Structures are given as C-alpha cells and as structure tokens.
Amino acid sequence: MELNMEELIKQAYGSVFEEALIKEIAEVSTLVEFEEGDKLIDIGEYIRRMPLLLTGAIKILREDRDEGDLLLYFLEKGDTCAMTLACCMGDTRSEIRAIAENSGSLAMIPVNKMEEWLGKYKSWRNFVFTSYNKRLSEMLNAVDNLAFMKMDERLLNYLNEKAKVNNSDIINNTHQEIAYELNTSRVVVSRLLKAFENEGKIKLNRNNIVLLNK
Amino acid sequence: MELNMEELIKQAYGSVFEEALIKEIAEVSTLVEFEEGDKLIDIGEYIRRMPLLLTGAIKILREDRDEGDLLLYFLEKGDTCAMTLACCMGDTRSEIRAIAENSGSLAMIPVNKMEEWLGKYKSWRNFVFTSYNKRLSEMLNAVDNLAFMKMDERLLNYLNEKAKVNNSDIINNTHQEIAYELNTSRVVVSRLLKAFENEGKIKLNRNNIVLLNK
DNA sequence: ACCGCAGTGTAACTTTTGTTACTGCAAGGC
DNA sequence: GCCTTGCAGTAACAAAAGTTACACTGCGGT
Predict the structure, then answer these.
(1) Which of A124, A136, A150 is most worth mutating to test chain B (most B CB atoms within 10 A of its CB)?
(2) Using the beta-carbon criterion (under 8 Å), do A146 and B148 form an inter-chain contact?
(3) Which of A155, A189, B137, B148 could form a disulfide with A179 if both were Cys (CB 3.0 to 4.6 A apart)?
(4) In chain B, which residue's Cα lies nearest the Cα of A147?
C-alpha cells in the first residue's frame, strides 16, 4: 500500500513547493489513507501533526451548542486546514470537526518541521499564508451564506458544492443528512427539494439527488 | 501632534514585540489618527500599508449583496486586521470594510517591511500568526452567531460587545444603525429592544441605550 | 411659537422557517 | 410472503423575522 510518497506529494503540491522541500516532506511525513465518513479531527482535540491533503475531499464542520453541526467548507487536493495550522502554532484545541467527504489520503507532518520550514523555504511560507487566506475567504463565504441567503439558496449552493467536490451530479445523501449540515430540519429540506424538482432543477430518488441542466 | 512614536507603540505592543523591532517599527511607520465614523478601508481597495492599531477601536463589516452591512467583529488595541494581512501578502483587494468605532490611532507599516521582519524577528512571526488565529476565531464566532442564535440573542451580544469596546454602558446608536450592522430591519430592533426594556435589561432613551444590572 | 424631521412605538400582516404528526413506500431480513 | 425499519411526502400549525403603515415625540432651526 506504501506507494512512492514523493510522487504522491508531487502530484498534489508539485507546482507549489520546491523540489528540496518535497523531498523533505516525503522523508518526515507519514501517509494516512481514509474512507468516507472517517472522523479525522474532532472538536477539543490537540493536533500534533499537520495534515496535507493529497487526494479526496474533507468537510469542515462547526458544532451547534445543543445539537447538530454546520458545514463550513470543503478541503480538496492541495489544501490544508488553517484551523489545524492555528492549533499547531498556537498549541490550542481544535474548534472544528473534520470528516472525510470521500476516500482519500493525506501526508502528516510533525509540527516542529512546520516551523523549521517557515525559515528555510519561501515556498512553504507562501503556502502557509495562502492557506490562511483561503480559509479566511471561505469563512467569509460561509458568513455570506448564513447572513444574506435564504434556505433555498443555501441548499442549492450546498448541492452544487457537493457535486463539485465529489465530481458527480449525483448526490448520495438523505434529506436528514443534508438538513444536519445546513443546520435545519429534514422537513424543510424535503419541502425545498420538492420545489426544486417541480422547477426542473433536480430529480429526487431514494437516497440520492440528481442535479439537472447544469 | 507628533508624539513620541516609539512610546505609543510600546504602550500597545510592548509585551508582544522585542525592543529592536519596536524601534524599527517606529522608524518606518507613519502615525494616522482617526475619528469615529472614518472609513479606514473599503471593499475592493488595495492595501499598501499594514495597520497596527494603537488606540481606539475599529469595526470590521461585510457588505450585503443588495444593501446593508453586517458587523463581523471589532479590533482593539494591539490588534491588526488579518484581512489586511491577507491583502498585503496576497496582493488582492479588500473583502471587507473597516470603519472607526471611536477615535484612535494606528501605525502604518510598508508592506515590504512586513515581509522582511518575518525572517528577522520571531516576535513578529508570532504576532502575524496570532493575528490570523484570532481572526479565524472571530470569524467562527460570527458564524456561531448567525447560524445558531436568534435575533434577540444576537442583539444582546451586540450591545455587550459595543459596550465593551467603547468602555461604556451607554450605547449611542439609533435603532436604525443597529439594525444595519445586524443586517435586519429597524422595526425588529425596536421590538426586541422594547422587550429587553420590559425585562429590565436596558433603559431606552432617544439616541442611546443604557445597559443595566451587568 | 411653530415647523420639520429624525427617531421611536406599535399594530397588522406576510413570508420564511421550524415543529409535530401521520402516511406511504422500498429494501432487507426472517 | 410478511415484518421491520429508514426514508420521503405532506398537511397543519407555531414561531421568528421581515414589511408596511402610521402615530407620536423631542429637538433644532427659523
């Protein structure tokens, strides 16, 4: 199962990191493979190693006070989690939950290397800052969704995002699961989905939704 | 008006930066004083100099698609705007608006120094990362507010935050202004405020609100 | 003193979202 | 086959938030 680590990293980060850094990463990191639904990080956990996403997609969730979660954003190939960065650097507990959206793999890097490379590699510094910026930007996007959009628009966005990260127009989720990630109720989701179907935007089946006329 | 720059910086950042760095900052930065209501950064602007807040408070707003804003968070002494960091490093346009909540002052630092210091001073590196982390954390807080709280709770939070940054239990805002920053309507704000008054939480006057029994 | 106006209070109504409850349906296990 | 169970559809109602409309009230300007 141990493929060539260097090749794997190059595929996801070849255009971002310099040769020497890729070699170093390959040396010190361990490969972790995950399956859909795996809980990669939970709220309150300390993070000892920083993950670099090689393949697959991960969803980042924020927990409701009473119950339920809220999807903040997805991570894809070439992403890392800035929340994790925050935890590594600040040595604090995770404020979010990370769950595998589909199967994939990541390289885990020891925290001390992370800091060392900040001084050593300009490309690493750039990567770290770019990651932070991307995450802030996604958070702004999440805020926009919550503050300015009604449920129907949020749901439509959700379906499109989901289709994108899974690279398929078929969404394999129950209404209950969707409701959970949008922090609303199943009945509301069913209602809105039915309306979308009547408008010809989607086709509803048992356990899956097909996006039409993209 | 030109007070001793070094002293000013030391007051706000004495415990964060090392001596040598404070000296350097004092040398290259320019002092900007601002009054309540001054627009410091607007959406779409490029940012050429990075601001360090010395005194006063600044509110950071996100613009609605059609009209109105939404308050994301406040900055206080010792803070900088990570969104600004993002813009400086990434050389992109600002995604947020920054307006002075009250009068104060800031030190403006040329972008190139910022990068130089990243290599030179550990305390600067720490500061930059801490700022990013704080901002991510505040964004999470904004998300929590929007996703999990009803309007009454959001309003109460808003009043408390406002009292804190202005260091006064008297809030000098019209209902209309509050509605604007919470992205709701004046009628809703008046309604909820009246309910708070009936519950003995606040005292309503013309153009100001007094927080009681803290 | 009077006017004008911004700020506030409030009623009445609509829209959006959440809740409860019940129905039917499909797939898998027995 | 039949039962169980999880999923989806829908009605009916409740709560929260947004909208429209209008009245009242201080205050500043003239």
Answers:
(1) A136
(2) no
(3) A189
(4) B146
Helices (H), chain A: 5-13, 19-28, 82-90, 111-120, 122-148, 151-166, 175-182, 186-198
Helix (H), strand (E) at residue A109: strand A104-110
Alpha carbon B50 to its chain centroid, in Å, reads 14
Quick one: tokens of A20?
Answer: 């020497």
Lowest mean pLDDT among A4-8, B25-29, B96-100: A4-8
CA B79/CA B64 separation, integer angstroms: 25
Distance (Å, whole) CA A16 – CA A21: 10
Top residue of A96, A148, A151, A182 to mutate, by most chain B CBs within 10 Å, is: A148
Q: How far apart are CA B163 and CA B158, in angstroms?
A: 9
Average pLDDT along chain B: 92
- Residue B16: closest CA among B117, B156, B146: B117
Distance CA B9, CA B23 (A): 9
Chain A residues within 8 A of B158 when measuring between CB atoms: none
Enter the pTM of the model.
0.92
In angstroms, the CA A56 to CA B43 distance is 34
Q: What is the mean pLDDT of chain A?
A: 92
Decide if A171 contacts B121 (C-beta within 8 A): no
Segment B140-196, tens digit of pLDDT: 999 999 999 999 999 999 999 999 999 999 999 999 999 999 999 999 999 999 999
**Does at least one atom of strand D sit less than 7 Å from the CB of A176?**
yes
Contact B88/B117 with Cβ under 8 angstroms?
no
Strand-pair category, B49-55 with B104-110? antiparallel
Give dist(CA B150, CA B128) in Å, integer. Answer: 34
